[in-house]
Design goal:
The protein has 727 residues and is mainly α. The protein has 29 helices and six strands. α2 packs antiparallel against α3, α20 packs antiparallel against α21 and α27 packs across α28.
């Protein structure tokens, strides 16, 4: 009896295992070009047969199996052994040689029905050229590249899709090999909203790289360093910051922080505050530059001012003129925080503040003209010129000391907290103010009024609100031009079944643009818009008045989606436009809008909430592990709109994405300018333009309508030309 060697036994075992696996897969020996036999000296043959069966399991073509067979024969011939009597050479039939690899193979079919998915398209074109993924891998992978052919197999089987920069580069090679247009396969990927992984922007932090990745071309890693730098500069200057003079100033100003915070008044989280002695030692370039929590006495003063201006009824013995709403209150707190922050910042740092210790800050300081002169001149030095902002702050000073109704005028006890401050307040001025508080208020009121006239005469406009959207305003149809952004969003929306959250975010982005164009609401009214799903009882007008919010709901009478906003919810609630009546509009079912709204309410909005508490608003944030609050505020809604414009609005010459050339990042308020300008261009009527943005013709003429002179001339010429046409 002949006993097999250990190597032969291992190879025979490998062979039998491969055969058993092939039988389970239903692909047995008929796919092999040689008989399945073995003998005592057949361990090399067993190795050959097992490798060929494994090739059958992996699904290679017949020519490749023959190629494997041929390689196995060579192996067996080289490993034939001499037993001392004769050479036991193996004599097996040679198979055909592997076909040579060509760059542009000839297709078997020249006409086909283009499938919608990436996997189906890849399988189709492999079949058209009679290639397996093994042959394709051998043809497109260059020497030295590490790209496993099993990745190609996973694409064909639908287990994975290309997502890295290297994979997308291979798609380009496949397109070139099969004579397909550039971007053919990428356009069929199920999630085109995700930036490719593996893009390396040198010199940027990981967070910055994630921020700019979407705006980089897929072949960014393969471009020269000068070209990479050029692309990054364009992305950071145009897309991220916005290449306007004001944006560049703002980017630099944000590096030098100088505010005093009032967390107990605003409700924001309290961070470790700094004492008055420490404030002058701050490094103004650090993260906490001049940004400190207000001392308790200053917080109590501001809280009293806010209560005075927001309470339903004033306290007995006090008078006021006007009431602050929630937005105005937040704005006033921010402005006072900036002023006190400038006064407290170190004069030795980059902010070049006044260096007033925190313990000496008090609202009583604001009764002295020299304090206001220092502040408005400090802002002029910082910016380079005066703006309307300084005029508004001086008017705030006048309101605080106005006769009978000024809050500071009605609180003379504030003088007890005054201390002399070199260069701003002398001991003699404090003594005079304490002796006659009313006279001190009169002096400031007259001084601030005179300064308003002087500053207003030389004030310049630093932030042109029309600059980011100038390319749209100059179009013949501004609304149609802006609507291209919504079309771009639809073009890139992902497969909702595989990527529900990404699809939900795209649906939200689309409806933000669509509803903004249809309604013309201010940011506050749009982000606070409540939702009533179809089939549920909508809120009454009385309930919406108490909430001071509008609602989108299904109208059974009109058989359409209706938006109802009470007049009290608007900033200009007492305007003649409303006359005490609510804003009501039935949305038109254009561009399949109703189906988009229904899909968003029924599916996408739930995916965005992710189990978090529902704030009841139509637009909700994407709830994540680190943030469970789904409601938008003024800042987050502005950033959401700005992100939509950055990704889908601004045309990127390096990626080909984006809808509009020359567009710059902007917020939701610019839509009102677009609507007013569109109507003015086509009608010339300020009154009709005011209807689109819920305002008066006077306000449209003053603020919103960008009615260019050439449009006026063209409109007049159109009327006059009718005479010549009739002649």
């Amino acid at each position: 009896m002949h006993i097999m060697s250990d190597a032969a036994a291992q190879d025979a075992s490998l062979y039998l295992t491969a055969v058993a696996y092939a039988e389970r897969r239903g692909r047995i020996a008929e796919s092999s070009p040689f008989p399945l036999t073995t003998d005592a000296d057949g361990h090399d043959k067993a190795r050959l047969l097992s490798s060929c069966i494994c090739a059958c399991i992996l699904g290679v073509s017949g020519r490749e199996r023959a190629d494997t067979y041929e390689t196995g024969i060579s192996l067996m011939a080289m490993n034939s052994r001499d037993d001392g009597d004769a050479i036991h050479a193996v004599s097996l039939k040679r198979g055909p040689k592997a076909l040579p690899t060509v760059d542009r193979p000839t297709p078997r079919l020249n006409e086909w029905i283009d499938p919608p998915t990436f996997r189906e398209a890849l399988v189709l074109h492999l079949s058209r050229f009679s290639e397996s993924y093994y042959q394709l891998h051998r043809a497109i992978i260059q020497p030295g590249e590490k790209f496993d052919r099993t990745t190609l197999r996973s694409w064909i089987e639908g287990d994975r899709t290309p997502g890295s920069a290297a994979s997308l580069a291979l798609l380009t090679r496949i397109e070139h090999r099969y004579g397909l247009p550039n971007g053919y396969f990428k356009a069929k990927l199920p999630n085109r909203t995700r930036a490719p992984s593996g893009l390396e922007a040198k010199g940027l932090s990981k967070a910055e790289q994630r921020r700019v990745a979407w705006h980089l071309p897929d072949d960014f890693n393969f471009r020269s360093l000068p070209e990479q730098k050029k692309i990054l500069d364009w992305v950071q200057n145009v897309v991220i910051s916005g290449a306007t003079e004001y944006r560049r100033f703002q980017a630099q100003a944000l590096k030098l922080r100088y505010a005093v915070r009032f967390p107990s008044v605003t409700g924001k989280k309290v961070r470790g505050g700094l004492s008055g002695e420490q404030i002058c030692d701050l490094d103004d370039q650090a993260d906490h530059v001049g940004v400190v929590d207000a001392p308790p006495h200053l917080v109590s003063e501001l809280a009293e001012l806010v209560r005075f201006k927001t309470a339903t009824l004033t306290d007995i013995g006090f008078q006021r003129s006007g009431v602050w709403n929630e937005e105005t209150t937040a704005q006033k707190i921010e402005h006072f925080g900036l002023m006190f922050g400038a006064l407290a910042a170190s004069p030795k740092g980059a902010v070049q503040g006044c260096g007033v210790p925190l313990r000496n800050l008090t609202f009583a300081m604001l009764v002295f003209p020299r304090v206001w002169d220092w502040y408005v001149q400090w802002r002029e030095r910082r910016r380079g010129f005066f703006t309307r902002w300084e005029c508004d702050m001086l008017r705030n000073a006048m309101a605080l000391v106005r006769t009978d109704t000024g809050w500071i005028r009605q609180h003379p006890e504030l003088t007890s907290r005054l201390v002399p401050i070199e260069g701003l307040i002398s001991a003699a001025e404090i003594e005079a103010a304490s002796a006659d508080w009313q006279a001190a208020c009169d002096i400031l009121h007259a001084h601030a009024g005179a300064r308003v006239k002087e500053v207003d005469r030389v004030a310049r406009v630093h932030r042109d609100p029309f600059e980011p959207i100038l390319s749209i305003l100059e179009a013949d149809s501004p609304v149609a031009e802006y609507l291209k952004i919504a079309d771009e969003i639809l073009k890139l929306r992902p497969d909702a079944r595989r990527y529900p959250r990404a699809a939900a975010e795209m649906a939200r982005s689309y409806l933000i643009i669509r509803l903004g164009l249809h309604l013309g609401l201010r940011q506050k009214n749009l982000r606070q818009l409540m939702v009533c799903p179809r089939g549920q009882l909508p809120r009454s007008e009385r309930q919406l008045e108490l909430l001071k919010r509008g609602e989108i709901r299904w109208s059974e009478r009109e058989q359409g989606w209706e938006v109802l906003v009470p007049a009290v919810a608007f900033k200009n609630a007492h305007s003649s436009f409303f006359a005490g009546k609510p804003f009501r509009l039935i949305l038109p079912d254009l561009g399949d809008l109703y189906n988009h709204i229904s899909a968003y309410i029924d599916r996408h909005r739930t995916a965005l909430l992710n189990g978090a508490d529902d704030p009841g608003t139509f637009f909700v944030k994407t709830v994540k592990t680190t943030s469970r609050d789904a409601s938008y505020n003024q800042t987050t809604f502005y950033e959401a709109w700005r992100l939509v414009i950055q990704r889908y609005g601004i045309f990127n010459p390096y990626t080909g994405r984006g809808a509009i050339k020359g567009l710059l990042p902007h917020g939701p308020h610019n839509v009102r300018d677009i609507l007013a300008t569109h109507i003015l261009k086509h009608t010339g009527s300020y009154e009709q333009a005011s209807y689109a943005i819920q305002d008066t013709p006077e306000m449209v003429a003053k603020h919103y309508g960008r009615f260019l002179p050439q449009d006026k001339a063209a409109m007049a010429a159109k009327i006059l030309n009718r005479v010549w046409e009739a002649a």
